Amino acid sequence: MDLWSTLLPLLLIDVLNPVLFALLIVAVGSDRPTANSSALIAGHTVAYFVVGILIAMGLDQISNRLANPKPIDFGISMAAGVLCLWAALGARNGGASKTKEPERELTPLYCFGFGAVVNFIGAPFAVPYFAALGQILKADLGTDGSLAVLVGYNLAYAFPFAMVPLLVAIMGDRSKPFLHKISDMLTGLVDKLMPIILSLLGLALIADSISFFARGHGLF
Questions:
Q1: Cα–Cα dist 95/88, whole Å
Q2: Torsion angle of C-alpha atoms 109, 51, 195, 83, degrees rounded to 10
Q3: What is the CB neighbour count within 10 angstroms for residue 155?
Q4: How buried is 135 (Cβ within 10 angstroms: 0-12 exposed, 13-18 middle, 19+ buried)?
Q5: Are 84 and 127 in contact (CB under 8 A)?
Q6: pLDDT of 57-103, one tens digit each?
Q7: CA pair distance 82, 206, nearest whole angstrom
Q8: How far apart are CA 161 and CA 38, in angstroms?
Q9: 3-state secondary structure the chain
Q10: How far is CA 171 from CA 22, 28, 34, 154, in A?
Q11: Of the candidates 49, 48, 47, 41, the residue with the CA atom closest to the CA atom of residue 165
Q12: Each residue's pLDDT tens digit, 3-27
C-alpha cells in the first residue's frame, strides 16, 4: 500500500498524455473507429509493459553483479530526475503536446504498431513511468511481486484511454465533438501544467537520491 501511495501521483502525471489522446481522436475519425482506437491503446500498453520489463531486467542484472541494488536504483532515480528537468524545458511553449500523426491509411494492425511507438513520440511523458519503475525496484518485492505491480500500473494507465473506444462504440459519431473538447482541454491543461509538474517531480527525485547517497536513506 505504501508503494502505491508513491506510484499513484506518478500514474496521474503519466496519464496526462495529450499526444496519445490526440492520436486516439485521429483513430476514431477513421472508417473503423472502435477497432483502430482499441488497437492503438493495445499497442501502446504492450510496448509500455515490455519496456518496463526490459529495464527492470537490466537493472536487476546490474544489481546482482554488484550485490547491492539500492545505490543503482537511487542512481536511476537521479537520472530520471534529471530527465524530468530536461523534459520540463522541452515542454515549454506548448512543446509537450506536439503530435506526429500517422502518415498512411489506418488499419488495426498499423494502429497497434503505431501505438507501440507513441512512447517515443511523447518522450516527456515516459519520464514518470521510468520514475515509477525506480520506485517498484526500490520496494524489493521480488520478481513476481514486481511484475504484478507493473501489470497493475499499466492497466491503470490504459483504463482512462480505453474509455475512448468504449464511448465511440456506445454513442457512435455523437461522441466525437465531446472527445474533441476533451482533447483540446487536455492539451491546454498539459501545456500549462506539465513543465511545472515535471520540474517538481525531477527535483523530488534528485533530492531523494542525494539524501540516500549523503545519509544512507531516501526521502520517500
A1: 9
A2: -140
A3: 12
A4: buried
A5: yes
A6: 766 565 554 445 467 667 777 787 787 777 777 666 655 445 555 65
A7: 7
A8: 9
A9: CHHHHHHHHHHHHHHCCHHHHHHHHHHHCCCCHHHHHHHHHHHHHHHHHHHHHHHHHHHHHHHHHHCCHHHHHHHHHHHHHHHHHHHHHHCHHHHHHCCCCCCCCCCHHHHHHHHHCHHHHCHHHHHHHHHHHHHHHHCCCHHHHHHHHHHHHHHHHHHHHHHHHHHHHHHHHHHHHHHHHHHHHHHHHHHHHHHHHHHHHHHHHHHHHHHHHHHCCCCC
A10: 19, 12, 11, 26
A11: 41
A12: 888 889 888 888 877 778 878 888 8
Alpha-carbon torsion angle 13, 11, 19, 53, nearest 10 = 130
How many other C-beta atoms are found inside a 10 Å radius of the C-beta of residue 5? 9
Provide the whole-model pTM.
Answer: 0.67
User: How many other C-beta atoms lie within 10 A of the C-beta of residue 65?
Assistant: 9
Residue in this structure with the C-alpha cell 503530435, named with its chain if needed: 99
Q: Distance between CA 4 and CA 72 in Å, rounded? A: 21
